[in-house]
Amino acid sequence: MNEVLQLKQAQNGNKEAFKSLISFYYPFISKYLLNLTGSPQLCEDLTQETLIRIIRSIDEFDIGGPASFSTYTISIAKHLYFDYLRKNKQLTSLDEEIPSKANIADDILNKMQIEEIIHLIETLPEQQAIPIRLKYFEQLTLKEIAEKLSCEPNTIKSRIHNGIVKLRKRLKGGD
User: Fold this and answer.
1) Is this prediction's pTM over 0.85?
2) Intervals of the chain under pLDDT 70
3) Cα(107)–Cα(110) distance, rounded to whole angstroms?
């Protein structure tokens, strides 16, 4: 396929050129969005929306510009995905990008550390483990925990403190 010729013809309204471009780029966009979203249904919806945007904005693409048409299509797909996340309150910052491999590695390490901490909490005496779970996982206040466990808030505070001291020692390789 001669992409430049197809693009020029599509920009001039040639329907066959549009069909050819869409047929060629559909699998490329779809695979990218499936990897990005992890959801076949969302991928299909975003792929269709991306193709519609490409058709509507084909005249805006600068054939001689610095970006290739594949970069242009992926940029549209990525922005549509971020718009979807913002609309569904899953993305809080306009500047967020797709996580890099380093960020993914950091996320995996953090999850492994969290799993290790959860396991270590389970090894604590119940008097310490339960208040720690209630405070940090269920986000209850000391007063709410004290009411739930029928004791004083200062007692809960002490149990949490002592439990965390034990967790720190165990995480560092002690006790």
Assistant:
1) no
2) 1, 89-112, 174-175
3) 5
Asked if 84 contacts 42 with a C-beta cutoff of 8 angstroms, the reply is: yes
Q: How many angstroms separate the CA atoms of 53 and 41, rounded? A: 19
Q: How many residues can be counted in the chain?
A: 175
What Rg, from alpha-carbon coordinates, does the chain have?
A: 27
Q: What is the DSSP letter of 139?
A: -
pLDDT given at position 128? 92
The per-residue b/e assignment along 4-13, b for 16 or more CB within 10 angstroms, e otherwise, is eebbebbeee
Residue type, 48: Q
Residue 150, Ramachandran bin (φ over 0: left; ψ between -120 and 50: alpha; else beta): left
